[in-house]
Design brief:
The complex is a heterodimer of chains A (810) and B (112). Chain A is of the alpha+beta class and 810 residues long. Chain A is built from 22 helices and 29 strands. Chain A has an eleven-stranded mixed sheet with strand order 1-29-2-3-7-8-9-10-18-19-21, covered by helices on one side. In chain A, strands 4, 5, 22, 25, 26, 27 and 28 form a seven-stranded antiparallel sheet that branches. A four-stranded mixed sheet of chain A has the order 16-17-11-20, with no helix packed on it. In chain A, helix 6 packs across helix 9, helix 12 packs antiparallel against helix 13 and helix 17 packs across helix 18. The chains are: A alpha+beta (810), B mainly alpha (112).
């Protein structure tokens, strides 16, 4: 034996293995990652891969057959609900496990466990908002109800059966790349997933930003910059609807108007992460009187952040008592948006303000007692332990008052509150509710009464539920359990010492605005105000107006409707906002003094047909010009404003100049001259030239290239994302596709005796980036095409649409 | 002859242990094989190196071709390795180096 060479070469070998198996020396454990039998190569799914497989699980009570079609959509045929939801959980996990875990970790404020310190602020924010507290209270309700408990239990078992079957080599790609392993699923995780949707859809507020604005501006300017009602509004429930006398009489606190005037110490200078204000959607239903077939057609396209793997997963769920098809959430049982043999339904976000802040006065720094209605009240505490990858664990103590958790305090400003004061959040999503029951019942609904009973469970996030059935009914209800607010309540931070500022009651179900078989023969919603100002409860402000206007105009003027017409409408790029703004603005841009190339850019604008078509250059010119116009009008007024402030909505500016060409804010207050609309429009156009010429030089003047739509992988890793998609549309178009946000599931259901349905989402059924089913729907979605949705019937097992079969037995 | 036998045995055994054990067990395989089949150190090193270069290279290439290099081209970009061919080569070389050095160590076990 040659000892020395043996020792040296053994050390070299061991060193190599350690280096290649850990992140000690290399940024990634390359040996482990690239081992062909265990590493990422195992995630490279063969293009001939078969998904057919036989499974045995003792938890099942009978046989379950799953037929996978050519788009990898599973058609699940089970004998009992229990088996059905078991297999739904199993399939969600098989195709989407990593995203389910990531999203529920993020919801629970546990992202730091996966990605490290960088997520600590997010985690603290979510813990302090009380996300886990809210999910726990929801879980209690879900488990009290036998129907939802059974579904959740079976679903969780299904997910866990899949997790137990995982080996080093079959782990999803992202676990290997990041270097961790999945933990067991639980019913709490399903509750967290749904609570995450509440945060996404009902977590938006501008209370600090509005409070600062109210302090900063004079009363007169404030009401002009932030009007609580827009004239051009075409509400969800049409103007002129008669509302009864409200059953709740609200007592307005005596100092409500003046309380936050001239208090200027709230602001700080950075911005927190906030749910996208544009988390919106379109839905509508037309009655048989307007369709070619004589049966209703229902359409829905929820607009959300566009991610890979997609938020949605398509499925058909079938038992002897149930047959439903649609988009499901990997993370929860049942179908969320879809149709069954009798009816169809869809949602848009209700968008009312259900998250308010109260300033708390603690007795001392221990936060053990706070002043409320002339007495010291005891605080409750929740201790949050945040585990951080590669770092020490972070402990956070969150005080709870009668309102809810004290989200912002000197230890955590969230980038928006003051670092010296205490703010408790009152959030509707903390209240007891069982939203899952809504979907369980809708999946089984036959008629209008079933629909009403189902959606009465939907409390937060409030949604505009559209409905149509084969009996010919259409309906839309602005559903949610909404706090009855006095005018202006919750627009600003409220005092936490005075109980009269509390939410006093919830609006009764009977007083929720709705429409059922209206004479106009259609119902629609696009996140605009639910009702006009004659509705007796305060509805808040800041609703998007324009998609609603164009949808209603189009629906009013079309008859003999076919599903094809509805596809054209869902993908309509017409920009009604530009239609309203352009004539006035064009008249006011002075052409004299423009250089040749500037004139050319102006011609693009003049020749534009208000379509945000992918190739349109006019749309780009308008977009840049309008942004510059808005800046020019308001920048002078906001020059010394606190950083945490709300800028006026686009609709406010447009209404302002349309109704008054001498709109007060047009004048630049830092110059001695009084600027007119013509001055400002012309300067704004000139200010746009530099950006436009740069875009032109880089070949990005066409709208789709300028907008540059992308669908990001949840890690934002570019190689796993789809970039530079050539979509038209935009914020104010029915096709509300923005750069990373837009129609996340387009669905059209014609309720003829044999249902005819179409749908598409920007993703693919398999969450594995190494699969050809990872993003195969995207090009179809970009092109505005649809797939026929196949509601498979018993007896069609040998159809050539069935590509693979999975069978599950006990 | 010994060289070819060593290469074949190391490759086949590595394939087998890879089904059940962590990837680095290829080092143990290479070490044992060259300690049992005597060759000079250079030849031992080369037999381990060649065996895993061929095995991992072939496996990666086969998997990747069946996948139309979909996964490899994405992961290659994430790992900053340019394209799928480089990723396959990197895979082959990593296996080869580990097995090569283990094989070298194995050759020193025998008394010369």
């Amino acid at each position: 034996m040659r000892i020395l060479p043996l020792i040296i070469s053994s050390i070299v070998t061991t060193g190599l293995v350690v280096a290649l198996n850990t992140k000690l020396l290399l940024p990634a454990p390359l040996g482990k990652l690239l081992s062909p039998q265990q590493g990422v190569w195992q995630n490279a799914e063969s293009s001939e891969a078969s998904f057919s497989e036989d499974f045995k699980f003792p938890q099942l009570t009978g046989k379950v057959q799953v037929y996978l079609d050519d788009r990898l959509v599973p058609h699940v045929f089970a004998e009992t609900d229990r088996d059905l939801y078991f297999v739904q959980g199993f399939l969600h996990a098989k195709f989407r496990l990593w995203q389910m875990e990531l999203q529920t970790h993020a919801a629970a404020g546990r992202a730091s466990e996966i990605v490290g310190k960088i997520a600590l602020k997010h985690d603290r924010e979510f813990r302090r908002l009380g996300m886990v507290y809210a999910a726990e209270s929801s879980l209690k309700e879900m488990e009290k109800d036998p129907q939802t408990k059974l579904a959740c239990d079976a679903y969780t078992e299904g997910v866990n059966s899949y997790i137990s079957s995982l080996t080093e080599s079959s782990l999803p790609l992202e676990y290997k790349l990041i270097g961790y392993k999945p933990e067991k699923w639980s019913n709490l995780k399903s509750a967290l997933f749904l609570k995450n949707m509440s945060e996404n859809l009902a977590g938006h507020d501008n209370d600090f930003e509005m409070t600062n604005a109210k302090n900063y501006f004079s009363k007169e300017d404030f009401s002009k910059l932030y009007p609580s009602y827009q004239d051009s509004l075409d509400p969800i429930i049409p103007k002129g609807t008669i509302y009864g006398k409200p059953s709740i009489e609200l007592k307005v606190p005596t100092d409500a108007d003046s309380i936050y005037l001239n208090k200027t110490d709230i602001a700080v200078t950075t911005q927190e992460e906030k749910p996208d204000r544009n988390n919106g959607s379109n839905n509508w239903a037309v009655s048989g009187a307007k369709t070619k077939s004589g049966s209703p057609i229902l359409c829905n396209d929820p607009h959300l952040g566009l991610n890979l793997p997609s938020l949605w997963y398509e499925m058909q769920l079938h038992t002897p008592q149930l047959n439903v098809y649609g988009a499901t959430f990997p993370g929860a049982p049942s179908v969320i948006i879809g149709f069954n043999d009798s009816c169809a339904w869809g949602v848009t976000n209700g968008g009312r303000d259900v998250r308010d802040y109260y300033e708390i006065k603690f007795k001392d720094k221990t936060k053990r007692e706070y002043w409320y209605d002339s007495a010291w009240k005891k605080t409750e505490f929740r201790y949050e332990t945040i585990i951080i990858k590669d770092s020490a664990t972070y402990m956070d103590t969150v005080a709870y008052t009668v309102f809810g958790p004290v989200m912002y305090d000197p230890s955590f400003s969230g980038g928006r509150a003051s670092n010296s004061r205490y703010f408790s959040v009152r959030w509707k999503a903390h209240d007891k509710s069982n939203e899952l029951k809504t979907f369980m019942q809708l999946n089984r609904a036959h008629n209008y009464e079933d629909y009403l009973s189902a959606i009465s469970n939907m409390k937060t996030p409030g949604q505009n539920f559209v409905f149509a059935n084969k009996a010919g009914d259409i309906a839309l209800r602005t559903q949610g359990e909404w706090p009855a607010k006095w005018k202006g309540q919750g627009d600003f931070i409220m005092p936490g010492t005075d109980g009269t500022y509390q939410w006093q009651a919830m609006i009764p179900f009977e007083e929720t605005p709705f429409q059922y078989n209206p004479t106009r023969n259609f119902v629609s919603s696009a996140n605009q105000d639910p009702a006009d100002s004659s509705y007796p409860y305060y509805l808040g402000r800041g609703y998007p107006l324009y998609r609603g206007i164009i949808i209603n105009r189009r629906l009013q003027n079309i008859n003999g409707i076919t599903p094809k017409d509805m596809m054209a409408l869902q993908t309509d790029n017409y920009n009604v906002f530009a239609e309203m703004a352009m004539p006035l603005l064009l008249n006011n841009i002075s052409e004299s003094g423009l250089a040749a190339n500037e004139k050319k850019l102006l011609r693009f604008l003049k020749a534009w047909d208000y379509n945000n078509a992918p190739y349109s250059r006019g749309a780009t010119v308008f977009d840049v010009f309008w942004t510059n116009f808005g800046k020019l009008v308001y920048d002078d007024e906001f020059k010394n404003a606190p950083a945490v402030i709300l800028r006026p909505y686009e609709s406010t500016l447009l209404q302002g100049i349309l109704s008054d060409p001498t709109y007060k804010f047009l004048d630049n207050i830092s110059t001695p001259e009084i600027e007119t609309l013509a001055d400002i429009a012309t300067i704004a156009f000139k200010n746009s030239i530099e950006e436009l010429e740069k875009a032109e030089m880089e070949g990005r003047l066409e709208w789709s290239k300028f907008k540059d739509t992308r669908v990001n992988h949840l890690t934002k890793l570019e190689p796993l994302s789809r970039l530079h998609l050539s979509n038209g549309g935009g914020t104010h178009s029915i096709n509300a596709t923005k750069s990373n946000h837009g129609p996340s599931w387009r669905m059209i259901v014609s309720l003829t005796s044999k249902t005819e349905a179409y749908g598409v989402y920007p993703g693919g059924q398999n969450g594995n980036p190494g699969s050809r089913f990872y993003d195969n729907f995207i090009d179809h979605w970009v092109a505005g095409s649809y797939y026929p949705l196949w509601m498979m019937a018993a007896g069609e097992e040998s159809s050539n649409r069935v590509q693979w079969k999975m069978s599950f037995t006990n | 002859m010994k060289f070819i036998v060593s290469v074949l045995v190391i490759a086949l055994l590595s394939l087998a242990v890879g089904l059940f054990f962590p990837w680095w067990t290829i080092a143990i395989v290479a070490f044992i094989v060259t300690s049992l089949i005597p060759q000079n150190p250079l030849r031992s090193f080369l037999s381990g190196f060649t065996a895993l270069f061929l095995l991992w290279g072939a496996l990666a290439w086969l998997i990747s071709s069946n996948n139309e290099h979909l996964m490899a081209s994405k992961v290659a970009l994430i790992l900053k390795m340019g394209n799928s061919t480089i990723l396959i080569l990197a895979t082959a070389i990593i296996g080869a180096l580990v097995a090569g050095f283990a094989a070298l160590a194995g050759s020193f076990v025998r008394k010369k």
